[in-house]
């Protein structure tokens, strides 16, 4: 059975995401042993400035590595972006799969985590990045297959506006609780309605982008 080049590259991209997630999870295992020997929990413990600098640099390097892999896999701009979405989504989901394997955490998808550090720490329940990652994988694979079939992908202005609003809403949901992220307080309840709005807007934005061009 012959496998289309795009599908084969998506499989390799996914494998990269799974392996890269193991590397990421391994680092977090060591960090939690250092700062949370009794198990990860809120309120957050402030790490040393030296370690914080290393962590910020590591997270920035993570994005660079995912983008570099996508740049090699894709032939054109939007195809590269599609591979990036798939790599990122698989990496993020399997990061939690590996942590579950190594530490038995998270116990449920409702457990809270520190999701990212730039430009401020992001916090929220694990289910939030998992849902976002699933959408990223779907959209990314769809873009790759669309372009592989000879169709273009060119979002119009409305798609850009909706995606921008969705991103802003999502960032607010993760970064609004600065007391919990910067001042060692217990987190406020997560704003699930903001997550839902952002996912809906992303979905509409993607749908409009797919309908705005023709085969």
Describe this structure in words.
This protein is mainly alpha-helical and 215 residues long. The chain has a domain at 5-152. 69% of the residues lie in helices and 4% in strands. It has seven helices and two strands. It has helices at residues 5-35, 49-73, 77-103, 127-148, 157-175, 178-182, 192-211, and strands at residues 112-116, 122-125. The protein has a two-stranded antiparallel ribbon. Strand 1 and strand 2 form a beta hairpin. Helix 1 (5-35) crosses helix 3 (77-103). The longest helix is centred in the first third of the chain and has 31 residues, at 5-35. It is globular, with a radius of gyration of 18 Å. The mean pLDDT is 91.
Order of helices and strands: HHHEEHHHH
Q: State the secondary-structure class.
A: mainly alpha
Kindly report the spatial arrangement of strands forming the biggest sheet.
1-2
Distance between the termini: 26 Å
**Count of separate DSSP helical elements:** 7
What is the 3D shape? Answer: globular
* Percentage of residues in helical conformation: 55-70%
Features:
7 helices; mainly alpha; 2 strands; 69% helix; two-stranded antiparallel sheet; 215 residues; single chain; 4% strand
Structural topology:
Layout: H1 5-35, H2 49-73, H3 77-103, E1 112-116, E2 122-125, H4 127-148, H5 157-175, H6 178-182, H7 192-211
Antiparallel strand pairs: 1-2
Helix pairs in contact: 1-3, 1-4, 2-3, 3-4, 4-7, 5-7
Short description:
This protein has 215 residues and is mostly helical. It contains 7 helices and 2 strands.
């Amino acid at each position: 059975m012959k496998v289309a080049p795009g599908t084969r590259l998506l499989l390799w991209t996914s494998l990269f995401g799974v392996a890269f997630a193991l590397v990421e999870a391994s680092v977090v295992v060591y960090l939690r042993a250092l700062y949370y020997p009794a198990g990860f929990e809120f309120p957050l413990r402030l790490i040393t400035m030296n370690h914080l600098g290393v962590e910020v640099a590591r997270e920035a390097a993570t994005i660079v590595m995912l983008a570099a892999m996508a740049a090699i896999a894709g032939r054109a701009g939007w195809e590269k972006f599609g591979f990036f979405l798939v790599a990122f989504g698989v990496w993020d989901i399997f990061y939690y799969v590996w942590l579950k394997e190594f530490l038995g955490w998270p116990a449920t998808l409702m457990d809270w985590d520190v999701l990212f550090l730039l430009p401020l720490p992001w916090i929220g329940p694990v289910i939030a990045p998992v849902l976002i990652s699933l959408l990223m994988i779907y959209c990314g694979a769809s873009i790759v297959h669309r372009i592989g079939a000879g169709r273009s992908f060119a979002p119009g202005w409305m798609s850009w506006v909706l995606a921008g609003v969705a991103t802003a809403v999502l960032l607010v949901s993760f970064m609004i609780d600065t007391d919990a992220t910067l001042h060692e307080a217990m987190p406020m309840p997560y704003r699930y309605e903001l997550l839902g709005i952002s996912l809906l807007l992303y979905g509409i934005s993607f749908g409009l982008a797919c309908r705005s061009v023709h085969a």
